[in-house]
Amino acid sequence: MANYPELSGKVAVITGAGRHKGLGEAMAKRLASEGCKVVITDIGHAAGDHMPESAIGTSDEMQQIVAEIKAAGGEASAFACNVLNAEEVQAAAKFAVDTYGSLDIWVNNAGVGYLMKPILDMDVSEWDTVLNVNLRGTFLGIKFAAEQMVKQGNGGKIINIGSQASKSAFAHASAYTTSKHGMNGITRVAAQELGEHKINVNQICPNHVTTGLGAWQNSHFSEVTGKGHDKYMQDMRDRIPLGRPGLQDDIAKACAFLCSEQASYITGECMNVSGGEEYH
After folding, report:
1. What pTM, to 2 d.p., does this model score?
2. What does pLDDT average to over the chain?
3. Looking at domain 5-207+248-273, which CATH architecture does it have?
């Protein structure tokens, strides 16, 4: 049952949505359940250096997610898009308009969260990969989504997916932390610049979420801290006032709220969805 009937018929693009058990998939399915027509994008093919297959949504996986949305009564399409490529990001916006008639919501979800190294151990090319995907990709999404929304003249919603690392610093995650802090800045600047066009720009900052990437990060940090998996996970739960890691749907529900008219006077916010672990 839809919680936000005003979202019915809205057209939403979600980047990095081609992996099962990922945040992008969860947000796409949540928005579709609210009546949005969704376009899920992901790279769809091998992406070169520092981009493992496990982090990339394949064309087959995107089509499976589309089929699942349709089977549940929603409308969805898939579009292969590398967020580093300006032409492809612009084409994704055009595809949404050509397919469904407008572009009302854009979710910048694609990101790199697996190159976790100390500064002294990180190659320059690895640094560039993280910063380019997480910041350049977000910039391109904002730019081309906003261009279409301004042309339409009906406003719109842009949601960026940050991290707890948008608010706090994490050793062994220099590039990731830097990129996610940078997303705070572009979110707030875009909100200031696009407000006159009735475009709301906000950011969601999750902490530990039970995605494939989240599982990899938990394994990685349990190793680098020397705690072991069980101790690391227990310490994590102890730090979170609500006593558990986040679920994909916790983030998806926050996304739907920020896309709704209930959030029409909220813009430029970097909203923690962390069970109380992050509070500034």
Report:
1. 0.92
2. 92
3. 3-Layer(aba) Sandwich (3.40)
